[in-house]
């Protein structure tokens, strides 16, 4: 039907004065948007196939290409936007659920952008990180409620297993399957060099990467893909994935087309079969069941590793976190509604869950009100975009943050949000060998190290400005924050004052 | 707006004198010492802590209380009678000093917890007293307990410290330890409770500085039942000492390694045993690390400690002569009372100088 033709959102603009018909764009585009017309010796493009990933733009040797937003428009309507109309056409044609990738792009408030940081003036000196020590090391894990001494009166180390991080940032869960082998290798090597951790996601751990175990968090999700004794033992910590910010309340789906030989082995499923993670863990229907899984995993690893429980930020997140803090978990990871994904139903991604800033503030306060904040560490994700977001999250009460999207962008992701197609031109969210090899892990890992080192410098600058020379004095230090343009209720939930107060 | 409703930050002068032999001396010398540092105060708060001053009542908690009204006093006394045996009560003796104005009613009570109430509470007597002090300070409007230890007392007011000392007739008290504070708050306090020292039981803190970790520390310590009613840095430090020393059972030296912890790079250079212990303390009590500039003198039953922040962003000097120990923001404040010193030095940042009575308690 003609109605199904939708004019493309983006147009490929080619400067024919510059184009030398080298056909790089054609070779680089897995979506086959570029075509060579041999009879005319001319490059043309099919805008409808373009996902706006900038691969061709970046590799064009003569800078002949750019992508622009189409000015094609529906009649203006504040209620029925072009997006809404087009989605209806699509669904009326397919009868299917709309799929999307990466984090919620809709225009909800970004609270981090409405929070400002403090700096010292006169009564308290700022500290120059180039001249004075400035410490960003954090330990994650439960803190003891009392001390113990030996017969000579010396303190006994009664700490439960801890994770040591050189800075309060980790790479969040992205499975082998949703991202490529080379992307995984980049993350693992960067985490090792930086003294932080990366997270396998729910897709198991490729044997080649066992050697990075000391910097690896292994995930146990509802599908239990790739979970076995050696997998658990190879890790620094185990994360039980109860939920994900991009798709709270539902499971995951890796299409069989992505399950090749290697992934089949890692996930322990037959080649070509869909890997479907159920929405709930079918052995966890309530909090007491979670406690059993936490302790099963601890038993299996001899109580040598912290257990993380990851949940999506949903309406009663504080209550849920309080339950988790009492169920043996050492660390709670909370994933906000802007968290990324390799694929999620659009409606779920864009309409379920709450902002991480509000979730974090209420969880931290709730755990303090109950006197159990030191029983667990809090790690937040979804979405941390810069070192300023890290500093704000720590000051709101987080022990550390996870970054996913930011790490992928460092590897070359251009946020075209087409991961679910499996044709990532940057070699990140794909299993196609020709595409995967475009991401060179020797360069990729270095870019991640650079990004984290840059953030660490910036974190130190901001801390120094506040007169703080160690990150633990920033944690939960909400007086260092002020809100701008927030209403009373928002300020109350965030536990901060308004600018000027 | 009155003090306690906002966070009031200040610069300051501090001084402390301690007799290790337990010899009691008059409060005159601490007034002389703090008066030298007049320029470091601005007349908006001064105070003293004195130890060993109530030997005849040494087994009883001495409550010093400010009342803003007779009705507050009545309500508070009813509460005290309900929970304690009152052994003695009186107005705290003062003399008129022109510079000290608007004084509240200032009363002193020597009390001991009622055995039945104490048994009902299932608390030890110190914890019982702490709970009652917080109850009065947070629930009874216009009443504020500013001293609650045994055989010691806090004396404080709005004014220059030397005037405050004369106001309270401090020269008439004799003790083995005195500490003092002159305040330079950056906005006007209207309230006597906001002056230093801050105290809980026999722990007192005088403090010069502004801590940048304040809200991290406050939110942590409040988790353990402390209520920061005054919103000053110093109150938080006093509670941290009480928590780590009395409740957790860390030694003072260990507490220094928590609140003014060595840098990780320093810790890593230590021998293994020491390194592990320092790592443990920093990790286990991470949220009680205090950053930003401070020098503090902590008084407690039978001892005194002087401590700087880990970068030594505030001045502090210590001196010794025979059995006497001195600590002050400036050397002049020590020399004015004892110029013939055996030793005088500036302790390093994070290095607590701890003195205690020879042969234990007073």
Features:
heterodimer; A: 501 residues; Alpha-Beta Plaits; TIM Barrel; 8-stranded parallel sheet; 21 strands; 15% strand; B: 362 residues; Glutamine Phosphoribosylpyrophosphate, subunit 1, domain 1; 5-stranded antiparallel sheet; 11 helices; globular
Could you give a short description of this structure?
The complex is a heterodimer of chains A (501) and B (362). Chain A is 29% helix and 15% strand.
Please give the structural blueprint.
The complex is a heterodimer of chains A (about 500) and B (about 350).
Chain A: E1 10-14, H1 24-28, E2 34-37, E3 42-45, H2 55-59, E4 65-69, H3 82-94, E5 99-100, E6 115-117, E7 138-140, E8 163-165, E9 169-171, H4 181-194, E10 198-199, E11 216-220, H5 229-233, E12 237-241, E13 252-254, H6 261-267, E14 275-277, H7 287-300, E15 307-312, H8 317-325, E16 331-335, E17 344-345, H9 346-351, H10 356-369, E18 377-381, H11 387-396, E19 400-403, H12 405-410, H13 433-436, H14 441-465, E20 481-483, H15 488-494, E21 497-498
Parallel strand pairs in A: 9-19, 10-11, 11-12, 12-15, 15-16, 16-18, 18-19, 20-21
Antiparallel strand pairs in A: 1-4, 2-3, 5-17, 6-20, 7-8, 13-14
Helix pairs in contact in A: 4-14, 8-10, 11-14
Chain B: E1 10-19, E2 25-26, H1 28-36, E3 46-51, E4 61-67, H2 70-83, E5 84-91, E6 105-113, H3 115-121, H4 125-139, E7 143-147, E8 152-157, H5 161-167, E9 174-175, E10 177-185, E11 198-200, E12 203-209, H6 214-221, H7 233-248, H8 252-259, H9 264-268, H10 272-284, E13 294-300, E14 303-308, E15 317-321, E16 324-328, H11 331-335, E17 343-345, E18 353-356
Antiparallel strand pairs in B: 1-10, 1-16, 2-9, 3-8, 3-10, 4-6, 4-7, 5-6, 11-12, 12-13, 13-14, 14-18, 15-16, 15-17
Helix pairs in contact in B: 1-5, 6-7
């Amino acid at each position: 039907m003609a109605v199904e033709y939708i004019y493309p959102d983006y147009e490929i603009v080619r400067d024919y004065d510059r184009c030398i018909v080298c056909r790089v764009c054609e070779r680089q585009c897995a979506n086959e948007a570029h075509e060579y017309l041999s009879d005319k010796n001319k490059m043309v493009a099919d805008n409808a196939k373009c996902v706006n990933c900038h691969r061709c733009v970046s590799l064009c040797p003569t800078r002949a290409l750019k992508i622009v937003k189409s000015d094609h428009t529906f009649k203006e309507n504040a209620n029925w936007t072009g997006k809404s109309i087009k989605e209806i056409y699509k669904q009326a044609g397919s009868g299917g659920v709309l799929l999307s990738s990466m984090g919620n792009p809709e225009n909800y408030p970004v609270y981090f952008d409405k929070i400002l940081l403090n700096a010292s003036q006169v009564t308290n000196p700022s500290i120059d990180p180039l001249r004075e020590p400035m410490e960003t090391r954090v330990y994650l894990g439960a803190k003891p409620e009392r001390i113990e001494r030996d017969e000579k009166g010396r303190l006994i180390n009664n700490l439960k297993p801890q994770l040591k991080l050189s800075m309060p940032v980790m790479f969040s869960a992205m499975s082998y399957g949703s991202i490529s082998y080379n992307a995984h290798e980049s993350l693992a090597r960067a985490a090792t060099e930086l003294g932080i951790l990366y997270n396998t996601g729910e897709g198991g751990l490729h044997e080649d990467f066992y050697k990075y175990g000391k910097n690896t968090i292994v995930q146990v999700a509802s599908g239990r893909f790739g979970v076995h004794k050696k997998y658990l033992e190879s890790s620094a910590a185990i994360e039980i994935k109860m939920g994900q910010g991009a798709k709270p309340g539902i499971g995951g789906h890796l299409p069989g087309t992505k399950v090749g030989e290697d992934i089949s082995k890692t996930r322990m499923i037959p080649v070509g079969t869909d890997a479907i993670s159920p929405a709930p863990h079918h052995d966890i229907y309530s909090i007491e069941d979670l406690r059993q899984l936490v302790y099963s995993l601890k038993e299996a690893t001899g109580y040598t590793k912290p257990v993380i429980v990851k949940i999506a930020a949903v309406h009663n997140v504080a209550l849920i976190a309080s339950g988790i803090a009492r169920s043996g978990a050492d660390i709670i990871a909370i994933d906000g509604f802007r968290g990324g994904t390799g694929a999620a139903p659009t409606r779920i991604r864009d309409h379920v869950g709450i902002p991480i800033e509000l979730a974090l503030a209420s969880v931290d306060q709730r755990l303090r009100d109950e006197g159990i904040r030191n029983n667990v560490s809090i790690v937040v994700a979804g979405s941390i975009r810069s070192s300023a977001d890290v500093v704000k999250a720590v000051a709101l009460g987080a022990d550390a943050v996870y970054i996913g999207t930011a790490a992928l962008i460092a590897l070359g992701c251009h946020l075209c949000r087409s991961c679910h197609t499996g044709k990532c031109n940057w070699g990140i969210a794909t299993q196609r060998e020709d595409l995967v090899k475009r991401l060179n892990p020797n360069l990729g890992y270095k870019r991640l190290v650079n990004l984290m080192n840059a953030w660490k410098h910036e974190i130190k600058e901001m801390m120094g400005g506040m007169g703080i020379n160690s990150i633990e004095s920033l944690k939960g230090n909400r007086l260092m924050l002020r809100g701008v343009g927030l209403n009373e209720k928002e300020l109350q939930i965030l536990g901060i004052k308004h600018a000027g107060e | 707006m009155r003090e306690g409703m906002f966070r009031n930050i200040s610069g300051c002068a501090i001084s402390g004198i301690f007799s290790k032999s337990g010899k009691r001396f008059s409060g005159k010398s601490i007034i002389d010492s703090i008066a030298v540092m007049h320029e470091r105060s601005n007349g908006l708060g001064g105070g003293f802590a004195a130890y060993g001053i109530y030997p005849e009542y040494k087994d009883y908690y001495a409550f010093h209380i400010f009342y803003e009204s007779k009705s507050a006093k009545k309500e508070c006394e009813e509460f005290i009678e309900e929970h304690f045996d009152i052994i003695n009560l009186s107005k705290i003796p003062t003399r008129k000093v022109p510079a000290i104005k608007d004084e509240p009613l200032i009363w002193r009570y020597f009390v001991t917890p009622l055995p039945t109430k104490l048994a009902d509470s299932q608390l030890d007597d110190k914890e019982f007293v702490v709970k009652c002090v917080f109850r009065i300070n947070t629930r009874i409007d216009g009443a504020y307990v500013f001293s609650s230890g045994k055989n010691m007392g806090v004396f404080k007011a709005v004014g220059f410290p030397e005037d405050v000392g004369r106001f309270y007739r401090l020269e008439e008290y004799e003790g083995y330890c005195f500490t003092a504070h002159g305040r330079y708050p950056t906005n006007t306090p209207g309230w006597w409770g906001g002056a230093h020292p801050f105290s809980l039981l026999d722990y007192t803190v005088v403090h010069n500085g502004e801590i940048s970790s304040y809200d991290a520390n406050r939110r942590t310590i409040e988790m353990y039942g402390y209520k920061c009613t005054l919103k000053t840095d110093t109150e938080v430090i006093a509670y941290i000492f009480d928590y780590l020393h009395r409740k957790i059972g860390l030694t003072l030296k260990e507490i220094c390694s928590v609140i003014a912890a060595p840098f990780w790079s320093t810790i890593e250079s230590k021998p293994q045993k020491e390194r592990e212990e320092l790592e443990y303390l920093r990790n286990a009590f991470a949220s009680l690390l205090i950053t930003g500039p401070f020098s503090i003198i902590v008084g407690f039953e039978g001892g005194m400690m002087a401590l700087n922040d880990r970068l030594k962003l505030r001045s502090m000097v210590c001196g010794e002569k025979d059995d006497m120990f001195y600590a002050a923001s400036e050397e002049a404040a020590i020399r004015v009372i004892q110029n013939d010193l055996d030793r005088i030095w500036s302790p390093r940042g994070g290095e607590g100088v701890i003195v205690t009575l020879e042969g234990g308690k007073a």
